[in-house]
Amino acid sequence: MKPYELVERIVEYIPSIASPIYRLSFREKLKWTFLILFFYVFLSHVPVIGLKLTPEAQYLITIQHLLGARFGSLLTLGIGPLVTAGIILQLLVGSKIINLDVTKPEGRKKFQALEKFLATLFCFVEALAYVAFGPLTTLPIFLPFVIFQIALGGFLVILMDDAIAKWGLGSGVSLFIVVGISTQIFVRIFSPFPPSCSFSNLSLCIPSATNLPVGLFWQMLINFYNNNPTNALLALFPIFSTLLLFLLVVFVQGISVDVPLAFSAFRGFGRAWSLKLLYTSNIPVIFAWALLANLQLISRVGLTSVNGKICGPLGCFDRNGNAISGFAYYISSPKSIASLLIEGMNTNELLRILIHSLLLISLAILFSVIWIETSGMDARSLAEQLSIIGMQIPGYRRDPRVIESVLNKYIPPLSVLGGLIVGLLAVIGDLLGAIGGGIGLLLSVMIIYNYYEIIKNEELEGVPEFIKRFLVG
Predict the structure, then answer these.
(1) How are beta strands 304-306 and 323-325 bridged, if at all?
(2) Which residues contact residue 48 at a Cβ distance below 8 angstroms, ignoring those fewer than 6 apart?
(3) Would you call 397 exposed, middle or buried from its count of C-beta atoms within 10 A (0-12, 13-18, 19+)?
(4) pTM summary value
(5) At CB < 8 A and 24+ separation, what contacts does 376-380 make?
(6) Domain closes at, from 192, 212, 234
(7) Where are the alpha helices (DSSP H) in 135-281?
(8) CATH of residue 111
(9) Given 192, 213, 244, which residue is the final one in a domain?
(10) Same domain for 234 and 142?
């Protein structure tokens, strides 16, 4: 039996979500999307029995938000298994180690089967890694039970992503990411409670000049009131940076190149095929960040104390859990410009900014190019689709090869340029100290914008007229 056949046989026994047998209305899709999202948030508050968080978990809080996860709950893994499986398959298929023609239905079916198999496998692999080597711990007697609970939560995320793809709006992975990041951004700006706030001592929940709230907006007001303009401006700068990056991403999202097309059967009728500058959207930066996040997790495996430092296979950390040397230092996010101006510039930090930026941008370009080839977004696949529906380039004969040659002038450059721009925007966000991190804010804005476009293109039956006018314009 061939490997593909074995995987397909195994996948048949893995539970999945059935596709609807009728056309879903917008209201039904919206209903299922909110129901699944509610279930997702609910699971994030269901604790794993027998599990404890180690002190190192607080240093991985950014990874937690970007994975749509919540350490210690059933959603400890978040979208980690799905994204990791996607990265590995993209690299294997893109490098031709696995020879699949994803431009054909049979090839895409095999790709999806492999992805589902790998994602399910990674639920157990990552659950074991988190408990045995990562930020979670348990008693040896509870280890199998804890791993099963975490893996089960990861598999439920796979099912919820599948359900949204078939019954809801957009992508489950994107939706789960934006929920985690948006929550973090809202809390970081508007939360009126200090980090020391506790139900056991409510007096610590009252903000003051010596017990500042988490929310930067309130920090700014308190510092201005107490005649401390420097700290007030430092609290205001991340908010300003976040707003600036938000507007910049929205602006770049709207840039596109129009390719004129015409219907071969109806003279005088045609349309423009818009190819966006960010042709691959947020996919490259999701994969690039997820790869770096997995490397950060691996860097904390097998840590041992060496001369006052805590070292692992990829580098060393200080007592506060911050990377200070090795590869782990360069793959972790650099300090913001504001922090560097206060603490002072140093050669190591500048080198870290350079290496981290080049690595992130290079990975974004790589995954953008690979995604084009493996997702059916290349010129050849689009030319075949356009030819089937009777479209052609005005002034040329009807031939898929003609359409392909025209699209090849745009799509390969856009794949590289799009990956470069999203990687650069993520780097800029990190350096400006944008709330949620450069990658986090970039992903949330792009996902929200994509949902806006998805809803805009839906048939809005039963939707109030003022909402239709807002969406359609």
Answers:
(1) unpaired
(2) 72, 73, 74, 76, 146, 149, 150, 153
(3) exposed
(4) 0.77
(5) 376/102, 376/103, 376/108, 377/279, 377/280, 377/411, 378/103, 378/411, 379/403, 379/404, 379/405, 379/407, 379/408, 379/411, 379/412, 380/103, 380/404
(6) 192
(7) 143-167, 172-190, 216-225, 229-253
(8) 1.10.3370.10
(9) 192
(10) no
d(CA 108, CA 377): 13
Hunting for tokens 């017990």 — which residue is that?
211
For residue 163, give its domain range.
25-192
Q: Which two tokens stand for residue 337?
A: 């410009």
What the block records as the tokens of 275 is: 């190819």
Between residues 241 and 59, the one the model is more confident about: 241
Grouping H, G, I as helix, E, B as strand and the rest as coil, residue 305 is strand
The verdict on 175 and 237 lying in the same domain is no
Q: How many CB atoms lie within 10 A of CB 345?
A: 9
pLDDT band of residue 177 (cuts 50, 70, 90) is: confident
Q: What is the pLDDT of residues 435-460, one digit of tens each?
A: 888 888 888 888 888 888 777 776 66
Q: Provide the token pair at 411.
A: 């799509």
- State both tokens at 15: 């539970």
